[in-house]
Design brief:
The complex is a heterodimer. Chain A is mainly α. Chain A contains 3 helices and 2 strands. Chain A is flat and about 50 Å long. Chain B has an 11-stranded mixed beta sheet with strand order 1-3-2-4-6-5-10-11-9-7-8, with helices on both faces. Chain B has a single domain, classed as Amidase signature (AS) domain (Amidase signature (AS) enzymes, Alpha-Beta Complex). Chain B has 17 helices and 11 strands. Classes of the chains: A mainly alpha, B alpha/beta. The interface between A and B is large, with 55 and 72 residues.
């Protein structure tokens, strides 16, 4: 059982950071209240005594679905890069990965 | 007959009638397509069902059908019938946004399997329909491109997330549309627009090329104005696809024959106790009770059934869905497709990703991504995501027990008729409650339909009834739905949608 403590804007900022979204202060304040309200509502899942109940991740009992090991046509590099915000030398061009020197 | 009366005539016909008329040569596919494009031009400014209309592509597809027919080639079962496509499916070369600004301008390099199947059936794809961003919502107000309006009352919501598809069908802009249903996004829009919508069994229709919201819940299905039309589209879409590893490799239930059978004699119909009473609008409950009486008169046996864990379905859903969504939406990072914001040559990749996602995602998407991030974080995983998965098992068991007693289950599709635009926009929890009756089916993975059963006396707006069937017994939905539809249209003298105000 959990009982979520109230989310602070700082905690929401941490979540937003994990999810790679830079939010404004007014967004953080608003989401803190709303997420808190939603978390209290969904907390009801803890009311069901379910230690002996197996978790269900998926509606169909499918395991190890493989296709035949046959070559099928794929997309060309040109087709794939056509939708990219930036491309160079037949590759995606991305901002720098490392900071400083 | 003058040209405009003639095209009105074509847009008011069912898909089944149009397919027969085209096959018989009474009308060309091109005439049918032009009539629907003209209807879109005439009414869509006020409805905003479409995000993109593919005039040239649709006409070319229609001309190809006419050429095939002239050459004596075999035609698909829906040859020449126009279809509106929810903007969550990839269609090669056609703008595809999933209702999000983050994908603005993206043109996919490949077709989804749903599009491939539509092409194989010789359907004509008119364009892409509006939706809540990434299918998160019950009103289309969360679209990054502005809301769709309900053809019954343009101050009201058309439901969501597939409000564009439902409104296109209800406004006679298309006889058929494709939707996706993760928590009710086909059925709830059908309910509030007086149309028919079906969520097939999970795995019944391929998800290849469907931009994922929650992979274990998403399912594509048909939107139409009649049960038989929905059955024809369902049959065209369904079946195993090796490109989707969750696609079921089993025979597709014969939904078209079931819709033609329309015989409920001797069937046991379970009324779900937990999906009625408090929280349901008076006129919704009244029309529901009347529909049950009709089923009884037709020879079915209504019985009350208890599904005690349905009470926890909404809570489990709003943990499982955001968890899966937060993971699925990680791919929208501004690197490979869609927009990129703030790449000033100085900012590093993480900063650019964060700026892009902050600018490209709307309010509800940000909210659910953070909810999912929270539910999956260490320390909370077991109490939230883990516990929700156990509730999911209990809900599936409730369905199993119920289907040991009855052939189908029924409930109102949504607790209320269409509400006003803006009414629930600032209250996420109130918005989520619209899906209280539709969510259990998505969690368990079985099949369900919504069909219109009348207008609520207090507001004159459509009410939908939900029929739920076991996994891969989708045919039962069509049998029961068609029986009820026939009895109701006999009483009214026409389909309910014909009572919608002229646009």
């Amino acid at each position: 059982m959990t009982s979520p403590t109230s989310l602070t804007p700082d905690e929401v900022a941490h979540l937003a950071g994990l999810a790679r979204m830079s939010l404004t202060d007014s967004e953080l304040a608003r989401y803190a209240g709303q997420l808190d309200q939603i978390l209290h509502a969904v907390d009801r899942v803890g009311e069901v005594a379910a230690d002996d109940v197996p978790p269900m991740s998926h509606p169909q009992p499918l395991v190890n679905v493989w296709r035949k090991d046959e070559v099928t046509p794929g997309l060309t590099a040109e087709q794939v890069l056509a939708g990219a915000p930036a491309a160079e030398d037949e590759r995606f061009r991305v901002p720098r990965i490392l900071d400083g020197e | 007959m003058n040209a405009s009366a003639d095209s009105m005539h074509l847009t008011s016909r069912t898909a089944t009638e149009l397919a027969a008329a085209i096959a018989a040569g009474d009308v060309s596919a091109r005439q049918v397509t032009d009539a629907h494009l003209a209807r879109i031009d005439a009414v869509d400014e006020g409805i905003h069902a479409f995000l993109h209309v593919d005039y040239d592509g649709a006409r070319a597809q229609a001309d190809a059908v006419d050429a095939k027919r002239a050459a004596g080639d075999t035609l698909g079962p829906l040859a020449g019938v126009p279809v509106a496509l929810k903007d969550v499916f990839t269609q090669q070369g056609i703008p595809t946004t999933a209702g999000s600004r983050i994908l603005e301008g993206w043109r996919p390099p490949y077709d989804s399997t749903v599009v491939t199947r539509l092409r194989n059936a010789d359907c004509v794809i008119l364009g892409k329909t509006n939706m809540d961003e990434f299918a998160m919502g019950s009103s289309t107000e969360h679209s990054g491109y502005g809301p769709t309006r309900n053809p019954w009352d343009t101050d009201r919501i058309p439901g969501g997330s597939g409000g564009g598809s439902a409104a296109a069908v209800a406004a006679f802009e298309a006889p058929l549309a494709i939707g996706t249903d993760t928590g009710g996004s086909i059925r709830q829009p059908a309910s509030v627009t007086g149309t028919v919508g079906v969520k097939p069994t999970y795995g019944g229709v391929s998800r290849y090329g469907l931009i994922a919201l929650a992979s274990s819940l998403d399912q594509a299905g048909p939107c139409a104005r009649t049960v038989l039309d929905a059955a024809h589209l369902h049959a065209a879409l369904a079946g195993h696809d090796p490109k989707d590893s969750t696609s079921l490799d089993v025979a597709v239930p014969d939904v078209v024959s079931a819709a033609r059978r329309a015989d409920v004699r001797g069937m046991k119909v379970g009324l779900v106790k937990q999906l009625s009473g408090e929280g349901y609008q008076a006129g919704v409950s009244q029309r529901f009770d009347e529909a049950i009486e009709i089923l009884r008169e037709l020879g079915a046996e209504p019985v009350e059934v208890s599904c005690p864990n349905f009470e926890y379905a909404l809570a489990a859903y709003y943990l499982i869905l955001p968890s899966e969504a937060s993971s699925n939406l990680a791919r929208f990072d501004g690197m490979r497709f869609g927009i990129r914001v703030g790449d000033d040559g100085d900012a590093n990749v993480e900063e650019v990703m964060s700026r892009t996602r902050a600018a490209g995602f709307g309010d509800e998407v940000k909210r659910r991504i953070m909810l999912g991030t929270y539910a999956l974080s260490s320390g909370y995983y077991d109490a939230y995501y883990g516990q929700a998965q156990k509730v999911r098992t209990l809900i599936a068991r409730d369905f199993d027990a119920a289907f040991n007693e009855v052939d189908v289950l029924v409930s109102p599709t949504a607790p209320t008729t269409a509400f006003k635009l803006g009414e629930k926009l600032d209250d996420p929890l109130a918005m989520y409650l619209n899906d209280v009756a539709t969510i259990p089916v998505n969690l368990a993975g079985n099949a369900a339909m919504s069909l219109p059963i009348g207008l609520a006396p207090e507001d004159g707006l459509p009410v939908g009834l939900q029929i739920m069937a076991p996994s891969m017994a989708d045919d039962r939905l069509y049998n029961v739905g068609a029986a009820l539809e026939t009895a109701l249209t006999d009483r009214w003298g026409h389909l309910l949608i014909e009572e919608a105000p002229a646009l």
